[in-house]
């Protein structure tokens, strides 16, 4: 006997679970298939290495689906300022949330806290089942629905399969959806550190020859370091002992927050830009990194993914309310139209930034330093950049618009 679900979401990461929660409290039956077990508890002193800068738009979505309060209660750090400067020159720019009348520019949250809060919320929803430690092995198109065979022999029938299974997306591969993109020949070294001076609730980003070095503010004056550099240097930085890493990091950061006093575990992640040619096919939709992977220099990957999740849920619920088949290509195209252009625009801007700051020829160095200084003194342009980085635009899915009750 096959179990019937209206929607099966493959991938219970931050984006897949956001989509599931956004479909909660409807009369659609939803399953989330997650290969790993999802952790919800760990010692308080344990700090997750992977963190995300979360925009106001994502916060609004998490709040609307009932997961935000749990993130607040678990642990997050609001940031009000962002300081960006070039190691090769005197160009710098400072963003201050009070300039746009907002108390914060965004929030730094450990990825596992986001995932745990969404998972617990999904478990509270009567119409959502989260199946952890399970994978699909094969699926068959049975005219009007897909039959998905799982590794434990169970079969799920569904009208719509959502791939939220990350940048390597097996769903995308099996569906034969092609991607375009390129590697950056860069890796991001991440580490949790403490500094001599307080981080001042500021995101700091210094552009070095090999890539940007960011310090993201966390609780108890911890910072999460995201150091994009060549794969060779990344390997050396991981192999260094704590003392060696501390000294190199302090120097690369120009001792902006004084000495690095403590270094926690480190990890490295290869960086690439990747975009799928199609987000949808008949009975298939891709969201999050399964559809697009972006350079982390402006911390937008998850934020694009939560907007995908909200837009797809909106499309599905709207079609369902009109009595339409939610898996039809004509239905799903509405989701694709609402997100593809915006995602491409963000990806290309980040790619452009990366290239402009990665080029050390004298004319370009001069141009970008002049550009940074000029922008710093042009409030209208600065405000526009801030609103963009905060995810505040007027073409957002409904769930991403403010409705905070807390
Ligand atoms: C160094 C670095 C820093 C970053 N910083 C930021 C930031 O500050 N802000 C930001 O917005 N973004 C940031 N990002 C991007 C962000 O991490 C990703 O965009 C985000 O993790 C994508 O979420 P996702 O849920 O789409 O995919 P994933 O996080 O990859 O989750 C996919 C899930 O699918 C599951 N899965 C995979 N295959 C299967 C299968 N066959 N069956 C069942 N389950 C499966 C996996 O176990 C996983 O749980 C950063 C990325 C990097 C590399």
Question: Helix and strand layout, with pairings?
Answer:
Blueprint: E1 3-10, H1 14-22, E2 30-34, E3 51-54, H2 56-64, H3 68-74, E4 77-79, E5 81-86, E6 92-96, E7 106-110, H4 111-124, E8 128-132, E9 136-141, E10 146-150, E11 155-163, H5 170-175, E12 179-195, E13 202-208, E14 211-217, E15 222-229, H6 231-239, H7 242-252, E16 260-276, E17 280-281, E18 284-286, E19 292-293, H8 301-321, H9 329-358, H10 362-376, H11 379-389
Parallel strand pairs: 1-2, 1-11, 2-8, 5-13, 11-18
Antiparallel strand pairs: 3-7, 4-7, 5-6, 9-10, 10-11, 12-15, 12-16, 13-14, 14-15, 16-19, 17-18
Helix pairs in contact: 1-4, 1-8, 3-4, 8-9
The chain binds flavin-adenine dinucleotide.
Flavin-adenine dinucleotide binds near residues 13, 288 and 289.
What would your notes on this structure say?
This protein is of the alpha+beta class. It has two domains: 3-77 and 104-181 and 273-360, FAD/NAD(P)-binding domain; 186-271, 2-Layer Sandwich (D-Amino Acid Oxidase, Chain A, domain 2). Helix content is 35%, strand content 31%. The protein has helices at residues 14-22, 56-64, 68-74, 111-124, 170-175, 231-239, 242-252, 301-321, 329-358, 362-376, 379-389; strands at 3-10, 30-34, 51-54, 77-79, 81-86, 92-96, 106-110, 128-132, 136-141, 146-150, 155-163, 179-195, 202-208, 211-217, 222-229, 260-276, 280-281, 284-286, 292-293. Strand 14 and strand 15 (222-229) form a beta hairpin. Helix 1 (14-22) runs parallel beside helix 4. It is globular and about 65 Å long. The relative contact order is 0.18. The mean pLDDT is 92. The structure holds flavin-adenine dinucleotide. Residues 10-16, 33-36, 52-53, 135, 164-166, 170, 188, 190, 226, 269, 288-289, 296, 299-303, 305 line the site of flavin-adenine dinucleotide.
């Amino acid at each position: 006997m096959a179990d019937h679900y209206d929607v099966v979401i493959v991938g219970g990461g931050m984006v897949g679970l956001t989509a599931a929660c956004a479909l909660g409290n409807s009369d659609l039956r939803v399953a989330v298939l997650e290969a790993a077990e999802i952790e919800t508890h760990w010692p308080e002193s344990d700090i997750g290495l992977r963190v995300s800068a979360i925009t106001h738009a994502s916060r609004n979505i998490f709040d609307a689906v009932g997961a935000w309060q749990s993130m607040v209660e678990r642990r997050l750090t609001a940031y009000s300022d962002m300081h960006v400067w070039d190691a090769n020159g005197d160009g710098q720019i400072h963003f201050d949330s009070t300039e746009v009348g907002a108390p914060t520019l965004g929030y730094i949250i450990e990825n596992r806290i986001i995932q745990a809060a969404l998972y617990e919320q999904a478990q509270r929803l009567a119409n959502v089942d989260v199946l952890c430690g399970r994978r699909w092995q094969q699926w068959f198109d049975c005219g009007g629905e897909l039959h998905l065979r799982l590794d434990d022999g169970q079969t799920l029938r569904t009208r719509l399969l959502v791939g939220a299974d990350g940048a390597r997306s097996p769903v995308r591969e099996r569906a034969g959806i092609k991607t375009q993109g390129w590697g950056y020949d860069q890796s991001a070294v991440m580490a949790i550190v403490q500094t001599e001076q307080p981080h001042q609730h500021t995101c700091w980003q210094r552009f070095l020859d090999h890539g940007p070095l960011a310090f993201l503010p966390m609780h108890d004056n911890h910072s999460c370091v995201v150091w994009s550099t060549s794969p060779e240097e990344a390997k050396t930085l991981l192999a260094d002992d704590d003392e060696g890493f501390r000294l190199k990091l302090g120097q690369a950061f120009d001792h902006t927050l004084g000495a690095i006093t403590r270094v926690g575990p480190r990890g490295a992640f290869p960086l690439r830009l990747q975009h799928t040619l199609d987000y949808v096919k008949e009975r298939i939709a891709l969201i999050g990194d399964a559809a697009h992977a972006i350079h982390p220099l402006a911390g937008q990957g998850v934020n694009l993914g939560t907007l995908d999740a909200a837009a797809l849920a909106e499309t599905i619920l709207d079609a369902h309310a009109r009595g339409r088949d939610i898996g039809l290509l004509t239905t799903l195209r509405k989701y694709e139209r609402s997100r593809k252009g915006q995602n491409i625009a963000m990806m290309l801007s980040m790619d452009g930034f990366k290239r402009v700051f990665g080029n050390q020829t004298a004319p370009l160095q001069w141009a970008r330093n002049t550009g940074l200084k000029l922008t710093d003194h042009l409030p209208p342009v600065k405000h526009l950049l801030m609103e963009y980085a905060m995810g505040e635009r007027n073409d957002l899915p409904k769930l991403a618009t403010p409705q905070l009750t807390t």
